[in-house]
Automatic annotation (TrEMBL):
One of its GO terms (biological process) is phosphate ion transmembrane transport. InterPro entries: AAA+_ATPase, ABC_transporter-like_ATP-bd, ABC_transporter-like_CS, P-loop_NTPase, PstB-like. The keyword Transport applies. The keyword Transport applies. Gene3D superfamilies: P-loop containing nucleotide triphosphate hydrolases (3.40.50.300). One of its GO terms (cellular component) is membrane. Keywords: ATP-binding, Nucleotide-binding, Transport. This is Phosphate ABC transporter ATP-binding protein. Residues 28-272 form the ABC transporter domain. SUPFAM superfamilies: P-loop containing nucleoside triphosphate hydrolases. One of its GO terms (molecular function) is ATP hydrolysis activity.
Length: 277
């Protein structure tokens, strides 16, 4: 059967293609996770384990549900009226979709950085201080802002411009300010949806280096279409595919070395070598 056949691309991955961690308790774990919009299934049956202090890349062709899946991990799909989520997402041993869980609290603990930089129309200082203020912090804001901007590797570039608008700096600096804003509330996980796709090569390199440095402190799950980027920054890679019916399924999950060097699924090999996608 041809690799670009609709039926082949629509098949779920074999269970033996999905990495399981027997010796550690994952920080985040999905079990049979599915998402529908207006009754139409977008993502089906995703089971994924994410270890603490790792970088996991979600890769696959456009339209295979990577961003939809990412938004499940901090309940961002709750903000879409037609969205429906089934299955489980356990974070630090807690089902984040349980009825007694506050999604706002989850979004502080699992932050998100979007594809295009989206600083608020406020000063750089107030962008970073926004989350701590909402959480009721009034003391030591100066220290929090500086520490967060330092962690995002942008302090030296903006330290004399903290009262300037967050929209007044370059795109790469805006994205790192958005990362600093996410870090200011000390999240345990940061979700990144193609954070460098709208940036120039120099800014992209800075974001990639930042991701690698941050992974010693926080867990990062990143959606990327850039195979070279995924190989450079990730510890693990999850491959998603969707056929003509546009239902995204995870077909393989493993270490970077295994997925890119010795893929178990022929569709993964075809994708990472550029034959499909």
């Amino acid at each position: 059967m041809a690799l670009n056949d609709t039926d082949l691309l629509s098949q779920a991955g074999s269970a033996e293609n999905i990495l399981k961690f027997d010796d550690i308790e994952p920080l985040l774990e999905s079990n049979d996770l599915s998402v529908s919009y207006g009754g139409q299934t977008a993502v089906s049956g995703v089971s994924l384990q994410v270890p603490k202090n790792s970088v996991v890349s979600l890769i696959g062709p456009s339209g295979c549900g990577k961003s939809t899946l990412l938004r499940c991990f901090n309940r961002m799909n709750d903000l879409i009226p037609s969205a429906s989520v089934s299955g489980k997402v356990n974070f630090a041993g807690q089902d984040i979709y349980a009825h007694d869980v506050d999604p706002t609290e989850i979004r502080f603990r699992i932050g998100m950085v979007f594809q295009r930089p989206n600083p608020f129309p406020k000063s750089i200082y107030e962008n970073v201080a926004f989350g701590p203020r909402i959480n009721g912090m009034t003391d030591d804001l100066d220290e929090v802002v500086e520490t967060s901007l330092r962690r995002a590797a942008v302090w030296d570039e903006v330290k004399d411009r903290l009262n300037d608008s967050g929209l007044s700096v370059s795109g790469g600096q805006q994205q790192r300010i958005c990362i600093a804003r996410a870090l200011a509330v000390n999240p345990e996980i940061v979700l990144m949806d193609e954070p460098a796709s709208a940036l120039d090569p120099i800014s992209t390199q800075a974001i990639e280096q930042l991701i690698q440095e941050l992974s010693s402190e926080v867990t990062i799950i990143i959606v990327t279409h850039n195979m070279q980027q995924a190989t450079r920054i990730s510890d693990y890679a999850a491959v998603m595919m969707a056929g003509e019916e546009r239902i995204g399924r995870m077909i393989e999950y493993g270490t970077n070395e295994q997925v890119f060097g010795n893929p178990k699924d022929e569709r993964t090999e075809a994708y990472v070598t550029g034959r499909i996608g």
